[in-house]
Every structure is written in structure tokens, then in C-alpha cells.
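Spend some time on this chain, C-alpha cells included, and walk me through the fold:

. . .
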Amino acid sequence: MKISKPKFWDFKKPNYLSYLLLPFTLPIILNNYVLSFKKKNNNENIKTICLGNIYVGGTAKTPLTIKLNQILQKLNFKTASIKKFYKGQIDEQKLLSAKTNLYCKKNRVDALNDAIKDNIDIAIFDDGLQDDYLNYDLSFVCFNNNWIGNGFLIPAGPLREKLKNISKYDAIFLNGNEEDNVSIKHSIQKINNNIKIFETYYKPTNVDKFNINENYLIFSGIGNPNSFKKTLLKNKFRIIKEIIFPDHYNYKKDDIEEIKIIADRLNAKIITTQKDFIKISKENSDKINFLEIDMAIKEQSELISFIKSKI
């Protein structure tokens, strides 16, 4: 059973429930403290980049992993993506497998060793900042427009680590729809004035196949569904109904049939994300289209120079 992220996690300030759950953050605090002393493995046979987060879910790690693979391949590096196998994340695994050379195992170290055997130059990890066993040549922390929500650790808030911990990483990705990130940047610079910050935004690549004058029902089961909706609105889609499922939701035939019934009743076309579309069986996917997106990096040449300096 998939559970949606609690709404109070993304309140700008903690509410009474956050404070009530505050004592239960102690295991996270203790675990992070122990990990800070744990020696991790370095590997001289391959270069490694990690795209991770301290905010739980929906920070665009997977599309960024795909984008970095594309950029580095154009620079003549032999690249691969690495993702730890989770049964509930088949959607991201399918997407990475379709777009990159994916190594996916229950243990990231085993996946990395397979990449080394295949003479991969650079392995890009989709998630894994908090991995017990790995050090990376370059580590990015990804955020979306929700920033840090209420700023509390799990389960009182959406954070895996305290915000001050970004100081131990190399750079930040701020991902979204070209929002004004001045205040977020200021918060980051107060912690570490020297950390690199790169901004990205979602750039649809197949808008031309849609008639934006029609009505649309949209649905998604992703970590940050608001980013999907904002991208469509920015491109002038007329959204009359939105249905949100939990992140990594596995769609059943009944779910899809219900969506189609609602869309017919509203005389609306159906659109979802590519990540959601790949989870829908071929026989149930008629009348459903998906928005394909690319991650546009505002400072791409600067990012390339930065990566080269680190690897």
C-alpha cells in the first residue's frame, strides 16, 4: 500500500503535529551521527557522481541523472547510471533503463563493481547520498520548489538530514519551473557561501503533439505532482481536473478505467507524466498521452566546467 506524503510536511512553519512527532526524529539524528564517523569506500577505478536529496521525494533526481548522462556522453565519457533496486520504484528503473545504461542491484556497491568490469568512465548515482559504504567524487543535493518544507526531520517533517549538513556536499541543484529562488539561495549561502548552486527547469519536448485549446484531465503518482501541473500551466494547457496518486503508485486496471470515465464525462483529454505512463499496461494505455520533458540547466557550461574540475 502506497502512502502519500503528509501535507503538513510542506507547511512553511511546523504545526502542532510536527512538534508532537519531534521526539520520534531521534533515531534519524542518532543514525546520521553514527554515519558521520563511518569510513566509506573510495574507488580509484571509476569516477562517481551522486544526485541525492535530504528532502524526501520529488526533487528531480531521475531526470537529472538522465541529463548528466547525456551531457557527459557528448564529452566522450563512457557513462552509466546506478540505482539501488527497490520493488516499489520500478517506474524510475524503467525510465533510466530506457534512457541510460543502467546498473540496478540491491546493493549499490555491487552495481558499481559491475560498471567497473564494463570499463565505465563515470557512474552517476540516482540517490545514495546517505549510503553507508560509498564516497563520491562529486555529490549534488537536489531540491524542488518546496525547498525544505517545515524544516523538520522525518517523521515530523520531510528531511533526511538537517539543512546544515549541505556543507559536506559539493553543490546544489534547484529544480522547478523557473521560480524566483533568491530567498532559497540566501538560505543556502548562510550555511555555506562557497557551495555551487545550479538552477534547472522542466522543458517539455513534445508540446506540439497536443492541442492546448482542449480541456485536460491530468493525473500523476510522483513525489512532487505540483511541478507537473505547473509545467503544463506554464505551457498554456487548460486543466479542468487533477487526480493525484501516491509516489511510485502502481496503477490497476480499475484506476485507469475510472480516470477514463471521468475524462469522458468532462469531455477532456488525458495526460500524465512519462514516469507514470510506463507503469500503465499497453492494453490500458489507449486515450492516455504523456508529457515528455528534458531538464534545462541554466548554467550548463558552468556546470560542465565544475564537473571537469572535480573528476
In short: The chain is about 30% helix and 20% strand.
